[in-house]
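dude i think i finally got it to work??
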Amino acid sequence: MNDEIKSLLNLQDYDLEMDRLRGELAALPGKMAMLRAEIEAAKAALQEAKKEATQLQLTRKQKELDLDAQEAAIRKHSTELNAVKTNDAYRALLGEIEKAKQEKSVLEDHILQLLDQIDQASRLGKEKEAVSKANEVALQKQISDCEDAQKALEQTLASKESERAQALSVLSKNLADHYSKIRNGKRGAAVVPIRREQCTGCHMKVSQNLINEVRRGQKIMTCESCSRIVYLEEVIPA
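look at this
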């Protein structure tokens, strides 16, 4: 393998590593956004549960007011019984009292059911709040880890960029431009080995003439199909 290929592979190692690092870095903002959205969704769900619990309390209070009204009606009609002078009026009051007692009984049942619901909602609310707080701590820790990873990746990239510049400086301008042009047009490696008479970049069979020229090592050769720079893998020292 000639020195130019070695220099290109060295440069490519930096580029591929930096591609990987940039990929990881690019994924972090989205990941952190998802984590923050998860925290906000949990808060919203907890707030909604609290609203439901508050509504149960308001409903209970209204039912208790309605119950007081029915008890007052029973007392009022019971007092009025002593003042009526006809049987029809007496029976009418008895009917009103019975109706009020039935409504009172229904209200008492509703209130008991509401008290059970309120008690259950209170217990579940406390459990949800505890779980939500624990989850938020864990999610915040993940966000903090992502922020630390982001800073570390940025620092590593800056360091790699400096090292890459050094690796690039040993190449001629024409070769560096040729490599850059291939890199801009291809994903992944721009310099690839020929393996079993195939370019490992596009997996197309290469000509024997190309293999012979690569073996001579007198000039940089490119794949006839994909234009990637090629070298013979078998001549790489173990």
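The chain has four helices and four strands.
im so relieved honestly
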